[in-house]
Structure formats: structure tokens, C-alpha cells
Amino acid sequence: MRDTATVEPMLDIRNITLRFGGVVAIRDISFDIRQGEIRAIIGPNGAGKSSMLNVINGFYHPQEGEIWFRGKRRGPMRPHEIARQGLARTFQNIALFKGMTTLDNIMTGRMTRMRSSMLEQALWWGRAEREENAHREKVERIIDFLEIQSIRKTPVGRLPYGLQKRVELGRALAAEPELLLLDEPMAGMNVEEKEDMSRFILDVNDEFGTTIALIEHDMGVVMDISDRVVVLDYGRKIGDGTPDEVRNNPDVIDAYLGVSHD
Amino acid sequence: MFYREAGDFKTSYSDDGQTFPIAFDRWRYYAVMAVAFLVIPFLINDYWEKSILMPFLVWSTVAIGLNILTGYCGQLSLGTGGFMAVGAYASYKLMTAFPELNIFFVVLLSGGITALVGVLFGLPSMRIKGFYLAVATLAAQFFLVWLFNKVPWFYNYSASGQITAPERSVFGILVTGPNAAPWATYLFALVILTGLAWVARNLTRGRVGRSWMAIRDMDIAAEIIGVNPLATKLSAFAVSSFYIGVGGALFFSVYLGAAEVGEAFGIDKSFLVLFMIIIGGLGSIFGSFAGAAFMVLLPVLLKNVLVGGLGWPTDLAAHLQMLIVGGLIVLFLILEPHGLAQLWRIAKEKLRLWPFPH
Ligand SMILES: Nc1ncnc2c1ncn2[C@@H]1O[C@H](COP(=O)(O)OP(=O)(O)OP(=O)(O)O)[C@@H](O)[C@H]1O
Ligand SMILES: [Mg+2]
Fold first, then answer.
1. Contact assessment for residue A83 and residue B226, using Cβ atoms and an 8 Å cutoff
2. Cβ proximity of B49 and B186 under 8 Å
3. What is the DSSP string of B29-63?
4. Quick one: closest CA in B to A125, which residue?
5. Using the beta-carbon criterion (under 8 Å), do B206 and A116 form an inter-chain contact?
6. Measured between CB atoms, does A89 come within 8 Å of chain B?
């Protein structure tokens, strides 16, 4: 276990409340994500985990609360602007570009880092070609890292589920994010695929120093790879701490066993 | 003939990204270009120019334009005829207002003006998609045709309401007006189309094309990885309308010579181009050419074989043509959304592996 307690939070979520009409998806939740850690978000179905990620990357706008990123309060921003601040994510239901190849999907992940103008692109002149090749080199490294060389030119719509998840991780990594949000990266995978994915996540965190927040239902995996865990239930936060602390928290145990305190 | 990529190793990412990665394809491309530029101009006659080659060049230009918007960026448009009219009327106004301006620049400027109009009509795409956007572009189609009909300034107050292209030349050779030689109009349109097809290929292979396709395939994910949806859609509307405007300008000034807006640029043209890219292949530059060729050649073929050869009445042949096109559209939409271009790719794939399928 690393000691990240002294480091200032990279992302500080303060008193967020998110409502959809009468449904309160998130109720006054605060927690932080520290530089360099793997932070897990767990909780039963419908707890508000995905909604939380959607708030973080600007897809949902909470009615109350503040988000502080790198010591600054974040104003209202569109998701594509937030992406440029160094946030990337994957989705619970894979959201790849189905008609594009693996290579193009991952290249698209580098969108925020491309600078050539429309005119340069049109004439394939100046920066356009140089930039394309430079980014291609970075993308090839990600392809090697994720061991997906053989499906480079395959349209992703034709790939099996497990590989699609991997390509989606590749697309997020291509942005070289500071904070990577993963929504159930191992859902629907077999044990072997889960092991691979866990290894990739740990390697990303280790080698690139990427801060990671992930949602996952598999407790074994969560306890293994995360530094700290936040537990949600019915839109509330019911636990927050190291895997050991969370494991022994009575509220968390109840939420998972479905018992209620009276 | 060996159609192989074996021994054709790519040693750089530039090589891997080129338009025709297989040497044989590259040579075929050079051969086609050589025939188009060096052989056809000497053989062309009035019939070939008017019924086949000029329509093919014009419709290819327009089809690439619509394919960028609909095939690459996923924004369905039924306003193609209206945007062609913008290009045509822009070229007419430019030619009559600035007689000194070279026709080459007239055509490109007409594209530029159409691009601006396209962006304007693309603004609703910020809020609406799919069917509703298609209806909005349909409204644009009717509005534009109505506008060019209603406001006499656009047709310089001519009594007939028609616009007629004055004679203009490039390097002293006439390319518009009734006295232009077939080879001259053909080469003029060919040069423009070749340049624009090359630009379209460049745009679709890099950052811009990927952002269009990302919006098409999954707009939410695109936005979350940093694609600005509005800017991206508007850029597709702009580029697409530029091509359609250039096509419209060529159609009127170089091909037709005179035009009446409702007849030349009606809703039937919007559908014609849509059919071209569906049959040719959505999201493919080559498919735009294939679709244009198909839709230009089919009526000519039917007319020659059925009417000329078998003595069928003309209207029967025309009905059969509609049946064939309709059937093909349904077939392609259901079975092969990537059209002729994909069939061609599959055929090449088979050939590449032949005779060992594994
Ligand atoms: N766009 C939306 N509109 C209306 N209600 C929503 C929306 N998104 C989420 N909700 C509601 O918010 C609550 C939390 O949903 P959320 O998807 O965040 O749960 P989750 O913890 O990710 O669950 P799961 O483990 O099933 O993925 C649910 O009651 C859900 O119905
Ligand atoms: Mg969820």
C-alpha cells in the first residue's frame, strides 16, 4: 500500500447532489481522488456510480456541489473541454466507434493532442503528415502494450466483447490522461481476461503514473488493485477508506448483504 | 496476374497510410489517370461528353460532397439539390458581375459561398439529429428553390426566369457556353474533380476525418474524448457544401449552360445523389465515384439495350430503371451498407488470398 495521504487531492468532489426529476441519483456526496492512486468506486446496482463518473467528466451537471480539479474550482464546462484538461474514460456499455478500425479508434483518442489546421489536413502538407506519423508511433506503443497488434486494422464492430473492452482502454490511454475513469472495465469477462485487465490497469498506474478511478463489482479485484475505496448505496456515500477499512465497515457489509439497521 | 501484398512490406507509417498500399492498385490508379487525362480528351465526342462523361464528373463531385456529410459524419441531408442551386446561382452572379474573373476561381468561390450557406443550414444539427435533421434539410431544399425563383435579383431580372452561362475561357480556351469544345469542358471538370477528390482523401484519412466518423458512430463518446460536436458537424456541413456548390456551379455553367431552378435543382436531385452514395458506398470516396458512375450509366445502358436494341417504349424502360434502382437501394441498405465499394473490397480480398482461402 502506498502512502498517498500527504499528497493534495487531484480531484476533490464536494457535496455533489444530482437529481433526475424526482429521482435523486447522488445525494450530497464528497470524496477526493489523490494524485497517483487507484481509487475504486463500488456499490450495488443503481447506487449512482456511473452517474458520479458522468458528473466528473461533465456529461451530467449536478444541481448542487462543487468539483475542484488541481486546486481550482471547475466552472461549467462541456465534456470535450474537460477532456482537454487531461480526463479520459471508458464506458460501462462499450462506446467504441464501431465503423472504424482498432487503429483509428485509438488514433481518435489522441484528438486533443493534434494541432494541424484544416488547411494543412486538406493538403496533407506541413504538420499534417508529420503529426500523423508521430501520433501513429505513440499509438503503436499502446497497441503493443495491450497486445492487440493482430487486430490493428479490424473494424471494432467485428471484435469479441473482451477485445472491445481492451480497445476502449487503449483509446482512453491514447489521450495520455492524468486522470483515467474506468466504468466496469472487467464486466462480463472471464477470470483470465480479468487478470489481464487488472495487470493492464496496474501497469498503466505504475508505468505512466496515471491516476485511476474505477467502478467494479468484482470485490476480489477491487480489494487487490485499489489503494482506496469509496462505497455508494442509493446515492449516498456509506464508506470510504482503504480496502481493509471498507471491508470491515458494518454499513458496507449491510448494504451488500441487504440487511437494514433499525 | 499476381495481385499480392507479399513482398510489399511497409517500412514506415507514411507508407502504411498511403491511399493505395498495394503496388498493383497504385499502378491501376496511374493507368486510370493516364487514360482520363491523356486518352479520353482525344477520343471524346459530343455524345460521350453530354450523356456520360460530364454527368459522371459533376455527379461524382456532388456525391463526394454528400458522402462527407452523410457517409462520414452521419448527418443525413436531403438538401443537396438546393445547395447545388446555391453553387449554380453564385457562379451565375459572379460571372455576370465580374466578367474578368477567371471561371476557375468563379467555380471555387461558388463552392465557398455554398459552404457558408451550408454552415447556416447546418446550425440546427447542434440540437437535432437523424430524421428531424433530414426534415430540416428538406425544408432548406424547398426554401432555396423558392428563393431563387422568387427573387429576380438572382436571375438578373431575365424575362424567362432562367439563368444562362456567358462564355468564359481558361488559357484562351472556351469552357462555358454553347461553343465550348467537349474535350475542354471535360478537362476543366476533370481537373477540378481530381483536385477535390485528392483533398477529400486527405481530409478523411487524418484527424478531421476521424472526428467526423467519431461523431457518426458514437457522438457521446466522441465528445468525451475531446471532439467538439458542433464544430465537427459544422466543418462537415462546410466541406460537404463546398463540394456540392462546386458541383452545382459546374453543372450549370459548364454542363447545362442554362438552367431553371425548379427543374435543374429540385428534390429529385437530392434523392439522386443520396441513391448514388448508398449504392456506391457510404463513407467511401471510391464509392462516391462508383455510385455516380452507376446512376449515370444505368439509364444510358437501359436506353440503348431496351429502347434501341429491343424496341421497348421509352417510358417502360424508365419505369424499369426506377424498379432496378429502388430494389438495389433496399438490397444495399439491408445487406451491404457500404455499397459497391465494399463489394469491390471483398472481391479484392478474395483475389488476394486466391487460390488459398486461408
Ligand atoms: N440519464 C438518466 N435519467 C434518469 N435517471 C437516471 C439517468 N442516469 C441514471 N439515472 C438513475 O440514477 C440512478 C443511479 O444510476 P447509475 O447508472 O449511476 O447507477 P450505477 O451505480 O452505475 O449502477 P450499475 O451498477 O447498475 O451500473 C438509477 O436510479 C438510475 O435509474
Ligand atoms: Mg453503472
1. yes
2. yes
3. HHHHHHIIIIIHHHH--HHIIIIIIHHHHHHHHHH
4. B202
5. yes
6. yes
How far apart, in whole angstroms, are the C-alpha atoms of residue B80 and residue B291?
A: 15
Q: Quick one: pLDDT at residue B14?
A: 73
Please tell me whether the interface predicted TM-score (ipTM) of this complex is above 0.85.
yes
Instruction: Please check whether residue B257 touches A, CB under 8 A.
Output: no
| B230 HSE (CA, 13 A, CB side) | 10
Element holding A88 (H helix, E strand): strand A87-90
Q: Which residues of A touch B346 (CB under 8 A)?
A: none
- Can you give the pLDDT at residue B312? 83
pLDDT-derived band at B1, boundaries 50, 70, 90:
very low
pLDDT for A158 beyond 50 = yes
Kindly state the average pLDDT of the residues A7-29.
93
Domain ranges of chain B: 22-267
Q: Which of B246, B216, B217 is nearest to B64 (CA)?
A: B246
Which residue of chain B comes nearest to A57, CA vs CA?
A: B224
pTM of this prediction? 0.90
Distance CA B142, CA B66 (A): 18
- Domains of chain A by range and CATH? 1-86+178-262 (3.40.50.300), 97-176 (no CATH)
- Output the CA–CA distances (angstroms, integers) from residue B133 to B36, B79, B244, in the order listed: 38, 10, 18
Which amino acids bring their CB within 6 angstroms of ligand 1? A 20, 23, 25, 43, 45-51, 92
